[in-house]
Specification:
alpha+beta, single chain, elongated, 4-stranded mixed sheet
């Protein structure tokens, strides 16, 4: 068997928990797109206990508005993108 990061057995990538990956030194960024409302994006982000949440809006043009709900904790970042409104 191949030795991997000090672990004797390899696992399928789906079998790792977020905590295990963070403990191995990985930075994790998760994104979801086209969530219907900012309220729903915030609810989705709040399922991760212990993250600091911020709501952000970007206006690349006068007639466009992009909203995000961002959750962060150390090397974990969650970005939930609200469906683009024109």
């Amino acid at each position: 068997m191949q030795k991997d990061m000090g672990i004797n057995m390899r696992k399928n990538y789906r079998d790792y928990t977020i905590g295990e990956l963070l403990d191995m030194g990985y930075e994790i960024k998760m994104q979801r797109f086209n969530i219907p409302t900012i309220k729903e994006a915030e609810q989705e982000t709040r399922i991760f206990d212990g993250v600091e949440i911020s709501l952000e809006t970007i206006r690349p043009r006068e007639d466009w508005e992009m909203n995000f709900c961002v959750g962060e904790k150390e090397k974990l970042k969650i970005v939930n993108n609200v469906k683009l409104k024109k």
